[in-house]
Amino acid sequence: MSSDPVRRPASSQDKAQPAMTHSTVSPVLANPQRHHTAIFLLLLALLAVAPFAIYPVFLMNVLCFALFAAALNLLLGYGGLLSFGHAAFFGSASYISAHAAKVWGLTPELAILLGTAAAAFLGLIIGALAIRRQGIYFAMVTLAFAQMVYFIALQAPFTGGEDGIQAVPRGHLLGFIDLSSDLTLYFTVLAITFAGLLLIHRIIHSPFGQVLKAIRDNEARAISVGYRVTRYKLAVFVMSASLAGLAGATKAIVFQLASLTDVHWTMSGEVVLMTLLGGMGTVFGPLAGAAVIVAMQNYFASFGAWVTVLQGLIFTVSVLVFREGIVGVLARWLKKPL
Amino acid sequence: MVQILGIPVQVLFGQLLLGLINGSFYALLSLGLAVIFGMLNVINFAHGALYMMGAFVAWLLLTHLGIGYWWALLIVPLVVGAFGIVIERLMISRLYHLDHLYGLLLTFGLALVIQGLFRNEFGVSGLPYTIPASLQGGRNLGFMFLPNYRAWVIVASVLVCAATWFAIEKTRLGAYLRAATENPALVGAFGINVPRMITLTYGFGVALAALAGVLAAPIYSVNPNMGSDLIIVVFAVVVIGGMGSILGAIVTGFGLGIVEGLTKAIYPEASSVVIFVIMAIVLLVKPAGLFGRTA
Amino acid sequence: MKLTNTLLLSAAVAAISVPAFATDVKIGVLNDRSGVYADLSGEGSVIAAQMAVDDFGAAAKGINVTIVSADHQNKPDIASNIARQWYDQDGVDMIADVPTSSAALAVAQVTKEKNKVFIDSGAGSTDLTGKSCSPNTIHWTYDTYSLGKGTATALINEGKKSWFFITADYAFGQALERDTSEIVKAEGGTVVGGVRHPFPGTDFSSYLLQAQGSGAQVIAMANAGGDTVNTIKQAAEFGITQSGQSLASLLMFVTDVHALGLQTAKGLMLTEAFYWDQNDGTRAWSKRFAAKHDGKMPTMVHAGVYAGVLDYLKGVEATKGKDPKAVIDWMKGNPTDDPLFGKGSIRKDGRVLHDMYLFQVKSPEESKGPWDYYKTVATIPADQAFKPMSKDCSLVQ
Q: Which chain C residues have a beta carbon less than 8 Å from that of A165?
């Protein structure tokens, strides 16, 4: 795995800065890895017994954020596009699914699907505009659009402003499985998260994923070979937005609440931090990053703003000396892409 | 009462003037960002936090050392600018060989650290900073009562922006700067210390943010979160103006302040979104921004 | 002092007799410990809760009380997460305080779901005992209706009939605006307009300008804490009060007056449920409180936490257990009595009824020393101070 997965695509505005390309072997180009299957199975086994030892609500929080970070990683680690506005998808999906479950009385799976669809649609609009710019501009444009979504969430009548949407019913899955028990809900969330992670794994190892990597590494070359780069970028953006939406919609059902925290730009920063800390462009990195950050927020909550300071420090240190991330380092030791 | 577009003239003009005051802050902050971006190619996410620091240093000077507003206008940019130089030397300079996105991520982390530290120390309820005696009171403009201090903010911001524009576009030093932006290797070959120039540029951009912080202290309560949402608006301003364009940053800053004020008078609910809507339109029509170089 | 004596007496009786039962009670004080409401709730509420435990003599009665506290940062999501974790994992039986209506509504919902007890002091939304009422919620200190009632009636009686609202855009601000508007209209006034600002806000000049343009006689601030303080300051900066419009702060705490200074705040009319300098009981308690809290006098929120915890412990003692339904039924079935609010009662929707007071802020010349800020203008008796029970609440039908 190369050490700086955020590559800057060749931009016509910055001819002085050549695109950073590395010729290291990437996991995407290698053969499908058997050890990935083994790790997925091991994780699944661990997570299946975990709720009997650890507070299930906390675990569900980790799972939702793991999926959110994995969604961002698809865009950032494999598409080379840094979105600083992914909270827009996460948050708007959580509002839509909360509203659907509470006001329209939909079953949880329909509410979550509706939230995901809304995020996908939003991703299509924002993505179509944002991919007109590259690199750092792209990051700022996504950030600004996310802030726009934030203001809409603050002022639209159905979102409840500062209150958010509260008392969202967990409901009955498919109409008959009661989710009010934490354990039942946990296994539902586990299934959703794993489905999402496997889908992402499938995407990055498909021909589509390979083209994506080619674009990330050298956009000009990909264009010259004849790929319609813009379409690929938009496609991966929409996929990433939808999966982020899936995570947000699920979180709204778990916590029975959709609030402004989910759409605020600090949420976008947090998910970038999770991905960076876990290891950008690795399959399992986002999980590790999400677990560490959520655990930190949970157990250090009584220290107030020190959590922010600590997050900032981890961010700074990760950028300065630990750009591979936890799983990136592990992968280097094991000499296997993870 | 005379009305334009169904709005009393008094309210319309008042909101426009308030918009201009907000625009003064947008202009100063986006100017600093543009200067830094032009030279370092780094989006300084910590800009909002440094603006907040400026206000706090002014408050600390007044509360603990008895140093008043006018001296603070001079001292604070120097102190915070020096802090910026330390950051640039110790951290940002290590990332120049990497993708510029890392600069954005690093400064984002720094912003979290700085804001968190100030929140711990001072809480978030805000600290009072009184308006200097010589600028208290106000005048009646007929359509509204304009506090003297707010008038001063506009004047100060216009002066600083004009001076910075002049220094960069019309002086020899500015010419070196612009040349170094285009081709650092060549300028270095002429015997100019480019790394030092980069460091000083960052320090100057940060000083502009700190100056805006001092100007803001008496109007808004001095608060650790004062820069955190503002910075996103300023990002949008910079994107609209065209990244790295000095004139673009200044004109767009003031212009968008006025547009925002106008929106507050006509359709207040949309006032916080209008800048982002404009950004979307500009991106569609002119992706490089209003004053940007060729796309 | 009568109550304190009774308490001391009962503590003494309990001390000599073997406690009739023993139980552990865990009380969670959940409030704003770093934000705009930290001064009016925050650590002070923890001190007040501890004082209630000590004054009650809980340990001697076999009730072993532990107090935990946390910062909800005024956000409903954080508040509901902490409440959930407290109930699920940490064995908390009762949550007290919770300022910020949005957070309080979230905690009320979790408390109902987990069947525990929630005694709110810091939040003001009438929804807590209205459409979001719950058999597990008791709302102690004040609410938006009672605040509006005192202040609006007084100002309209002075002939100030046209009102403009500057409202903090969240549950509390909206409820305060809604309830006060109703009272204004009922008393024969008119509402000429209003604006809503994000919470917390920084620059209020644009809203003030709209308020000025409306020509209303009263600019009512339906916000709280630092927002109110900033609005008042900026109103002075823009010369609004000088031009003849009156500012009415619908929710103001003694700590806000302290922050503003009497020079800026003098003459403001405000409604509170408690002021430290009302009678011997409040003075004695407040001096003990101040001694533990850096010399800062208690707010009505602190007083409400004290009274609420005290009444809850009485319920635990009387029912010999902490079954939420039994304790709350006992509390609703018996009159409340404490040195801070005097005698009162708890309605079946969870609303605590006690007197409210209309105060006016003293001028610097009238004030005799630190924290001498209010003079009492009127007492609003308990039966008139609060909104009649509403059919919106499921407990009322």
A: none
Mean pLDDT of chain A: 86
Range list for CATH 3.40.50.2300 in chain C: 2-142+277-353, 145-272+356-385
pLDDT band at residue A28 using 50, 70 and 90 as cut-offs: very low
pLDDT tens digits, one per residue of A270-281: 999 999 999 998
Confidence of residue B11 (pLDDT cuts 50, 70, 90): confident
Which range of A13-27, B262-276, C1-15 scores highest in mean pLDDT? It is B262-276
B143 to chain C, any CB pair closer than 8 A? The answer is: no
User: Which residues pair with residue C166 across a beta bridge?
Assistant: C195, C221
Q: How many CB atoms lie within 10 A of CB A50?
A: 17
User: Contact B125/C35, CB-based, under 8 Å?
Assistant: yes
Of the candidates C198, C206, C240, the beta carbon closest to that of B18 is on C206
C35–B123 C-beta distance less than 8 A: yes
Distances (CA, A) of B189 to A250, B184, B194: 58, 9, 10
Q: Which residues in chain C are contacts of B144 at CB distance < 8 A?
A: 209, 212
Q: Homologous superfamily of C2-142+277-353 in CATH?
A: Response regulator (3.40.50.2300)
The span from the CA of B251 to the CA of C45, in Å, is 50
Do residue A312 and residue B109 have CB atoms under 8 angstroms apart? yes
The one-letter code for the residue type at B75 is: I
Q: What number of C-beta contacts closer than 8 Å exist between A and B?
A: 143
Terminal CA-CA length for chain A: 9
Residues C214/C185, Cβ–Cβ less than 8 Å: no
Instruction: Name every chain C residue with its beta carbon within 8 A of the beta carbon of B268.
Output: 195, 210
Cβ–Cβ gap C38/B119 under 8 Å: no
pLDDT value of residue C7? 52
Domain containing A125 equals 54-265
B147: nearest CB among C200, C237, C259: C237
Q: Given a cut of 70, is residue A153 above it in pLDDT?
A: yes
CATH number, domain C145-272+356-385, options 3.40.50.2300, 3.30.70.360, 3.40.50.300, 3.10.129.10: 3.40.50.2300
Q: What average pLDDT does this structure show over C198-221? A: 86
pLDDT for the residue numbered A2: 40
> Residue B245: what pLDDT?
86
Q: How many domains does chain A have?
A: 1
Rounded percentage of chain A residues whose pLDDT exceeds 70: 90
Q: Which residues in chain B are contacts of C243 at CB distance < 8 A?
A: 145
Question: Would you say residue A205 lies in a domain?
Answer: yes
Tell me what pLDDT residue B286 has: 84
Q: Is C202 on the interface with B (CB under 8 A)?
A: yes
What strands, in cross-sheet order, belong to the sheet with C218-222? C190-197, C162-168, C218-222, C246-249
**Would you call C198 and A166 a contact, using CB atoms and an 8 Å cutoff?**
no
pTM, two decimals, is 0.86
Distance CA B143, CA B234 (A): 29
pLDDT band (50, 70, 90) for residue C286: very high
CB atoms C237 and B223 under 8 Å: no
Query: So what CATH class is B3-285?
Result: mainly alpha
The answer to whether B8 faces chain C, any CB pair under 8 Å, is yes
pLDDT digits over B162-189, tens only? 999 999 889 988 888 888 878 888 888 8
Q: Is residue A171 situated within a structural domain?
A: yes
Q: How far is CA A338 from CA A68, A81, A303, A334, C96, in A?
A: 18, 20, 34, 9, 48
**Which ipTM value was assigned to this complex?**
0.84
User: Does residue A258 belong to any structural domain of this protein?
Assistant: yes
- Position A14 pLDDT exceeds 90: no
Chains near A with 3+ CB pairs less than 8 A apart are B, C
Enumerate the domain spans of chain B: 3-285
Report whether B25 contacts B233 (CB < 8 A).
no
Burial class (CB in 10 A: 0-12, 13-18, 19+), C6: exposed
